[in-house]
Each structure stands twice: as C-alpha cells, then as structure tokens.
Amino acid sequence: MDVREFDFDLPPELIAQEPPLERSAARLLCLDRASGSLTHTHVAALPGLLRAGDLLVVNNTRVFPARLLGRRVPSGGAVECLLIGRLGDPVPASVPDSVPDSVPGPGPTADPRLTPGEVWEALMHPGQKLQPGARVVFDGTHTIHGEVLERRFFGRRVIRLWTDAGTTVEQAVDAIGHVPLPPYIKREDRTDDRDRYQTVFARARGSVAAPTAGLHFSPPLIAGLTARGVQMTEITLHVGYGTFQPVRVDRVEDHRMEAERYEIGVSAAAAIESALAEGRRIVAVGTTTTRTLEAVARAHDGHIVAGSGSTDLFIYPGFEFRVVGGLLTNFHLPRSSLLMLVSAFAGLDRVRIAYHAAIVERYRFYSYGDAMLIV
Predict the structure, then answer these.
(1) Facing residues of 326 across strands?
(2) pLDDT tens digit string along 170-199?
(3) Is residue 126 within 8 Å of residue 90, measured between CB atoms?
C-alpha cells in the first residue's frame, strides 16, 4: 500500500497552537462507520453519544519534562536535548583501576567514571558537534551533567546523565526540564503547558508526548459519563518519540514502529474481559490505548490479561480489530502511522471524507486541536 494514500493538504492555520479554554470545549466530529454519516458537535456532548454499558478505556501515562536546555563544556555553546527513553537501570559509580590525585570532585569537570548516573537515548542539537566524549551541562534550580557515549541514526545519541547535589536525575529533570511540546507547535513551552499538556488521568510517569485524546476530559465530563452509565478503566502506555516519527518508506507495510512500554492492571483487565464477554462496546480513548489493547489481544488469543511489556504493533488498513469497538481520537498528521491506524478502524475512504469535512469546517488539528468519535 502506497504511503501517498494517506496524504492530504492542511492549511497551516488549522494546526492548533493553544489548547481550548476548557478541556471539554473542543469540537467533535462523529463518524458512523456503518453509514459514513458525519455529525458536528462538541466533546461536552460525549455522554449523549455513548451507550449505557459502554466501557471507555483511557491511558493514564504522565508526560515528564523531557526537553533539557543547556550548554557544552567547556565552550559554552547552546545545547538542546530531548530525552527519549532510559536505557536499563541507573548506572552505579565505578572506580577505575587508577585515579590521578588531580581528579576534581563532582561538577562540570568531574571524572564521569566516578559519578553514578543514568544512561538515556536522546535527540540532541547541534548533532554534528556532539560526538562521543562531548560533555554538556543543564542547570537551573538543579544541575544535570552529561556525557555523550554513542552516536546513533537520525540525530540520536546515547548520553549518560548525573547530578552532584544529592538529588536523583529524575528529580532534577522534573525541576528544570521543559514540556516536550510537539514540533508542529511553533512556540516555546509555558508554565501552564505543564498542566494542559497532561490528561486528568495522568499518574504513571514515563511519556515524552501526551495521549492527546485524553486531554479533552474534565471532571464534569467524567461525571456526565458516569451518570449516563458509561464505565471507565485505565491502562498505561508510555508514549515515545516514535509517535512523531515520520514514515520514511514508500510502502506502508515496510514501516516499523518503535517499541513502547505498557502495563495493564488486574482490575482493568477484569473490566475489559467482562465487557468482551457480555458483548458491551469498548471505546478506546486514543491510538495509544487502541494499540495496547489490540497488541495484548493478539498475544493472548483475543483476551486481555494483566501484565506489563512492550509493543511495536503497527496498525494499518487490513488489520483485524479484536477488542476496540469505538475510538475517540484527535486529527493526525498526513502520512503518519496514527492516521493509518484510524483509517484501519474506520476505512480509508470514510476517513478521507471526514478529514475533508473537518478542514472545510475549520476544525483545529493535532495535539491541542479538536477530536473525532468513530463508532
């Protein structure tokens, strides 16, 4: 299947740069998969669009401030680092066979062999100047030191991070890191993004991007869904940088997803299994939730079991859905794996028509934009 099948022209002014004033105030385009009919409404109307007994499954991952701004050591040149994922467990301090008496204590010139830390994969800029052995520092209310260990493809690096003030790397990142807003939001992050680029379900720290369909939920909307008789349960999938990864191949089938970590608790598995057994509709909030549920079902003969792991499941047209019967999702980038998933669920032709209607009606696109409900 040709990737160009998933291309479309989007006026740049429709790319949302700001969240709506109220979480549930976003517009909602409803697509009926059977008839292809489209309805224009708002997310606040969601309780009336679902049925009593439906099970909404949300992603409770929490975005951490993964973007670090700092400088090279000793030149002082500006450095930007986007943490993608930690590689293994924290690295303990190691003592080399011989240490010169002149080795300084912890600080920007400290011998990195003597300081405990963590090894991460990261996107770093400027990439050409950050070769293995390059040293960097990120500071503010806390200070994080780093050393580039390895150069990887597409601007990626393996970097070791450590602190020297008795705090953990995680504590320091949370204190001085910036919200990793998507690259199509053309402004600097602000303090209020720490709240708005986070869902009300966010509990499990570990994502570099928000599961954006969940951004539309607010306490009043959740109360309305509960009053309607709609059930809710939570799972976790930590969204990686791969969610922004362009599809660089010509054939859809040749694309490979990056693995992302998930966890499904005992109560969530029981709720989902009960809904499946009783024939009640399961509505996934977001593509991340959809991929997790369908990946686990594929591995367990159509059943959802409690546990944790990772998945690189790539869903595109022709995929057989075994769990998800409804999908709430935002509008996605052209040629993206997320658009391919939506097209697999609703049908490529119907999605093309829906996206054209959304553009004509001036819907707002992408992370801070409006939403679709596909049932």
Answers:
(1) 283
(2) 999 999 999 999 999 999 999 999 999 999
(3) no
